[in-house]
Specification:
six-stranded mixed beta sheet, about 160 residues, alpha/beta
C-alpha cells in the first residue's frame, strides 16, 4: 500500500479553514462526499463516532481520522493542511494542522491497517511534516507526501 494508492492532486486541500475539531471534520466530510459514494452527514457521523472511541490526533500537529464505509471498492485518502491549527484533543495536547483522512471499505481488514500504518509512518517523520507546512499548493504537498512515502518504504 502506497500513499499514491490513497490520494491524488484532487484529494489535497492545501489551506482548509476551520476553527474547531468538529468543524474540521465537517469540512473534511464535505470534501470526502465528492470522492466516495456517501452523503457528507453519514461520513461525519462515522468520523465523530470514531473520535468518541479516542482521539485520532496522534501528536506533533498530526491527525489521522478514519472510518469504515459500505460500498467502497478500496481505501481512499484525503490530505488537508489547516490554515490555522485547531485543538484536536491530541495525545500530546498540541494543536493539529496536518490531517490525513482515511476512508476504507467495511470489509477492508488488513488493508485498513496497512493504509493506516503507511500514513502514520509517513507523517511521523518531522522533516516531512516541516516540508508539508512550508510548501505551496496541492502539487507541492502531493510531491512531498509521495516522495516521503517512497523513502519510508525503503527504510
Amino acid at each position: 500500500m502506497e500513499i499514491t494508492d490513497l490520494i491524488d492532486l484532487d484529494t489535497i486541500i492545501p489551506d482548509l479553514k476551520a476553527t474547531s475539531k468538529k468543524q474540521t471534520l465537517q469540512e473534511l466530510a464535505c470534501y470526502a462526499e465528492k470522492i466516495i459514494p456517501q452523503a457528507h452527514h453519514d461520513i461525519l457521523d462515522v468520523l465523530l463516532e470514531r473520535e468518541r472511541l479516542g482521539t485520532t490526533g496522534v501528536g506533533h500537529g498530526v491527525a489521522i481520522p478514519h472510518g469504515k464505509f459500505p460500498n467502497l471498492d478500496r481505501p481512499y485518502g484525503l490530505f488537508a493542511r489547516l490554515d490555522q491549527p485547531v485543538d484536536f484533543e491530541s495525545l500530546d495536547d498540541q494543536p493539529v494542522d496536518l490531517i490525513f483522512l482515511l476512508l476504507v471499505p467495511e470489509t477492508a481488514g488488513a488493508d485498513h491497517l496497512k493504509a493506516l500504518a503507511k500514513v502514520s509512518r509517513t507523517l511521523r517523520d518531522k522533516s516531512t511534516c516541516e516540508k508539508l507546512r512550508g510548501s505551496e499548493g496541492a502539487g507541492a504537498i502531493y510531491a512531498i507526501l509521495t516522495s516521503a512515502s517512497q523513502s519510508s518504504h525503503a527504510a
